[in-house]
């Protein structure tokens, strides 16, 4: 068995092509949606979404063997928008006060090594250090293998759209506690 060592760092402009590749591969392979502009604009321009705004960040995990970016995780200050999310979530998690976790993606061959958990831990530290966030929110597609279980291990479900009437999307919304 080959042992991998990984470093986690804030993304730089030089990391954006590798980060974008991880994100696009994930939306095509794991989500099966491909690139959808209204959902994935931040993937195309991660600099404007995560590097330029002071309260946002994009982290990358780098494989120590070859320097390849193998995972991403991002945080921004935009709460869930209504629509498409339920109105009560938009009210509960307003933009500016809510740290939203986004794009926590790990290449399949690097999964089950604690990378996603390490990345989320770093994002939570970033949010706590900011001082202006009152909540941490995220949503996930539970049809993606391992996603729902992973987030349940870190946070609490605040809305499971599979339980609502009207046959909504299979989206589960979570809150994760800010570190003290």
Compose a concise summary of this entry.
The protein is of the alpha+beta class and about 180 residues long. The chain is built from six helices and seven strands; from the N terminus they run βαααββαβαβαββ.
Write a structural description.
The protein is of the alpha+beta class and 180 residues long. The protein has helices spanning 16-29, 37-44, 46-51, 87-92, 115-130, 147-154; strands spanning 6-10, 57-63, 69-76, 98-106, 135-140, 156-160, 172-176. The chain contains six helices and seven strands. The protein has a seven-stranded mixed β-sheet with strand order 1-2-3-4-5-7-6, with helices on both faces. The chain starts with 5 loop residues before the first strand and ends with a strand.
Describe the secondary-structure layout:
Blueprint lengths: L5 E5 L5 H14 L7 H8 L1 H6 L5 E7 L5 E8 L10 H6 L5 E9 L8 H16 L4 E6 L6 H8 L1 E5 L11 E5 L4
Parallel strand pairs: 4-5
Antiparallel strand pairs: 1-2, 2-3, 3-4, 5-7, 6-7
| Distance between the ends | 38 Å
The level of helicity is 25-40%
**Care to count the β-strands?**
7
State Rg.
16 Å
Rounded mean pLDDT is 94
The residue ranges in which pLDDT falls below 50 over 5 or more consecutive positions are none
* Largest beta-sheet details: 7 strands, mixed
Q: Order of strands in the sheet with the most strands?
A: 1-2-3-4-5-7-6
Order of helices and strands: EHHHEEHEHEHEE
Structural class: alpha+beta
Number of helices, where a helix is a run of at least 4 consecutive DSSP H or I residues:
6
**How much β-strand is present in the residues?**
25-35%
What would you call the shape? Answer: globular
């Amino acid at each position: 068995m080959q042992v991998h060592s990984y470093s986690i760092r804030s993304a730089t402009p030089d990391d954006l092509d590798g980060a974008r590749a991880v994100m696009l591969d994930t939306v095509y392979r794991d989500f099966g949606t491909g690139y959808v502009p209204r959902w994935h604009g931040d993937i195309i321009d991660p600099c404007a979404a995560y590097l330029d705004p002071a309260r946002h960040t994009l982290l990358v995990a780098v494989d120590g063997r070859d320097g390849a970016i193998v995972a991403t995780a991002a945080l921004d200050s935009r709460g869930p928008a209504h629509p498409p999310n339920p109105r009560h979530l938009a009210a509960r998690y307003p933009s500016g006060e809510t740290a939203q976790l986004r794009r926590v993606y790990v290449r399949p061959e690097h999964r089950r090594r604690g990378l996603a958990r390490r990345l989320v831990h770093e994002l939570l530290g970033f949010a706590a250090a900011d001082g202006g966030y009152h909540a941490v929110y995220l949503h996930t597609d539970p049809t993606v293998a391992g996603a729902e279980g992973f987030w349940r291990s870190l946070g609490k479900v605040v809305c499971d759209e599979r339980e609502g009437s009207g046959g909504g999307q299979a989206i589960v919304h979570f809150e994760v506690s800010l570190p003290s």
